[in-house]
Amino acid sequence: MVSIVGLDVGRNGVKVCAEGRLFTFPSIVGDWNERKLVTDYSDRGGYEIDVQSARKFIGTLAENESINPRHMLIDNKATDEAKFLALTALHLTGFTDVIVVTGLPVEQHVTEQKKAFRDLLFGQRGGMWDFNVNGERRLLRILDVKIAVEGGAAFWSAPQDGLVRLIDAGSKTVNYVTMKDRRYIYRDSGTLSFGLNTKRKWQELPIEDFAAQIAGELGAIKWSAKDAVLVSGGRANELAGLLRQYFPLAAALPEPLYANAIGYYRAGRSTVK
């Protein structure tokens, strides 16, 4: 049986929608080291992965036990760290044969970067993976990798007709997308090069200033105070409240943290009979 997995490899957390299940764990990767005292972190999003003799700590295990734990706050998503995170997530679904639907930001949605991300997930054996997570062997076959638009995918978690603006606030970037009658309007969509975890002079930007900066950027491309604006991301409810002084109709999506993963999953279901 082939299963669809909506996989959002975010820079702060990995989010998954698979056959009605939603789960997440931190996007932290760290080098493996031998532990004399072994603590199980799997109930708190911590895992040990071994892929072709490359061993890593993932999530809260990396945060607590690695010497150099790191979040994925870089522009390029086609990295070994993203591979380890994706395979951990796919292991946790329990599936064997999968079609993965994932995404890239609007500005990275070009042929070369999509191919690089697909090639990363297919690996060197055409989508066949044999690896271990927490000592459990996993035989996995990735049959296809489909790549959608981050932010745009979130729209499909709760689609609606008419003109809809969407703000997908991540830790590294902000994707902004315009949909009109369920079609993308590229002219009014793009990626802002700052996020909730980016810093100014080594200090995090307060979320109030973050909201104001988003509004200023989007006002410059003629987003209107009359527009319907949907917000996704882990702090979407708080951010939507702050954005209402600029966009009075701003509202968080129903499952804002998982909106992209849900959208990916639904897109995959719609193409597989």
Overview of this protein structure:
The chain has about 270 residues and is α+β, with helices and mostly antiparallel strands. It folds into 2 domains: about 1-150, Nucleotidyltransferase, domain 5 (2-Layer Sandwich), CATH 3.30.420; about 160-250, Nucleotidyltransferase, domain 5 (2-Layer Sandwich), CATH 3.30.420. It has 7 helices and 18 strands. A 10-stranded mixed beta sheet has the order 3-2-1-8-10-9-5-6-4-7, with helices on both faces. Strands 11, 12, 13, 14, 17 and 18 form a 6-stranded mixed beta sheet that branches. A two-stranded antiparallel ribbon has the order 15-16. It is globular and about 55 Å long.
